[in-house]
Amino acid sequence: MTINWTHWKSTTSRRLPKKNTNMQKRKLGKSGPEVSAIGFGCMGLTYGYGPVMDRQDAVKLLRAAVERGVTFFDTAEVYLNGNEEFVGDALQPFKGKVVIATKFGFKNGDDAQGLDSRPDTSARSPRPR
């Protein structure tokens, strides 16, 4: 599914689904955190589906997802344009209430440069604040 960001921008909050307090949950692994059954893939905010989404609109979208029960967000350094930092900043007010999953391992965050998952490289990868 491709999201039409222009349409989303013109949609008022009263047209968005109401806040969902009945979101189904899933536990990650045997002892991991509990997260929403529906996750939010963040790639399209900065990469892959057209132009980079306006930062203010993306923050509104991410926060609206949390208000509707989404607690699991997926990002990666290879999504470019600071996707991980962007998502981390937008979800900062929900620290401890959401889970942000990320992927790393490409040289300089560029999949064309090949893999580099050495411990010193992963230590330099961005971390949620």
Characterise the protein shown here:
- With 129 residues, this protein is of the alpha/beta class.
- It contains five helices and five strands, in the order αβββααβαβα.
- It has helices at residues 5-10, 43-46, 55-67, 83-91, 119-124; strands at 25-27, 34-36, 40-41, 72-76, 99-103.
- A three-stranded parallel β-sheet has the order 3-4-5, covered by helices on one side. A two-stranded antiparallel ribbon has the order 1-2.
- Helix 3 crosses helix 4 (83-91).
- The longest helix has 13 residues, at 55-67.
- The two termini are 30 Å apart.
Task: List the SSEs and their pairings.
Elements: H1 5-10, E1 25-27, E2 34-36, E3 40-41, H2 43-46, H3 55-67, E4 72-76, H4 83-91, E5 99-103, H5 119-124
Parallel strand pairs: 3-4, 4-5
Antiparallel strand pairs: 1-2
Keyword list:
single chain, about 130 residues, two-stranded antiparallel sheet, 5 helices, globular
Low-confidence stretches: 1-14
What integer value in Å does the Rg equal? 16 Å
- What is the N-to-C order of secondary-structure elements (H for helix, E for strand)? HEEEHHEHEH
Tally of strands: 5
Q: How do the strands of the widest beta sheet line up side by side?
A: 3-4-5
Mean pLDDT: 80
So how many helices?
A: 5
Shape: globular
As a percent range, the share of strand residues is 5-15%
Intertermini distance: 30 Å
